[in-house]
Amino acid sequence: LEYSEAQFTFDGTIYGSAFFMATGFHGAHVVIGTIFLAICLMRLYANNMTAEKHLGFEFAAWYWHFVDVVWLFLFAFVYVLPHLAYKIK
Fold first, then answer.
1. CA 42 → CA 45, 55, 57, distances in Å?
2. Prediction pTM value
3. Are 18 and 6 in contact (CB under 8 A)?
4. Residue pair 88/72 in contact by the 8 Å Cβ criterion
5. Secondary structure of the chain in HEC code, one letter for each residue
6. pLDDT tens digits, residue range 3-53?
7. Residues with Cβ < 8 Å from 33, sequence gap 6 or more?
8. Which residue from 11, 20, 28, 62 has the highest number of Cβ atoms inside 10 Å of its Cβ?
C-alpha cells in the first residue's frame, strides 16, 4: 500500500531509487529469514533439534538480529531523516 501511495517513483529521483532498492532488499531478507525459521520449525517437529544440536536455530537468531539492526538504520534514513530535513527548510 505504501509503495502505491508514495510521492516518488523508482526512476524519478535518487531518493526514490534508494528507497525502493533498500526496502526491496530488506523485504527479501525478511522472506529469507522466514524460510530460515520455517526450516528450524520443521526440524523441531521432526525431533531433529536438541539442546546440543541447535546450531541452525542459533544462526537463524543471529540472522534476525542482523535484519533488525539493518531495519533500524533503514527506518532512520528512509522515514525519520527526510521529515527532519523537511522541517528545517
1. 5, 14, 11
2. 0.73
3. no
4. no
5. CHHHHCCCCCCCCHHHHHHHHHHHHHHHHHHHHHHHHHHHHHHHHCCCCCCCCCHHHHHHHHHHHHHHHHHHHHHHHHHHHHHHHHHHC
6. 777 777 777 778 778 888 888 888 899 999 999 999 999 999 999 998 899
7. 60, 63, 64, 67
8. 20
Give the span between the Cα atoms of 2 and 7, in whole angstroms.
10
Take residue 45 and report the three cell numbers written for it. Answer: 517437529
CA dihedral sign, ordered 49, 53, 57, 61:
positive
Cβ neighbours for 57, distance < 8 A, ≥ 6 positions apart: 40, 43, 49
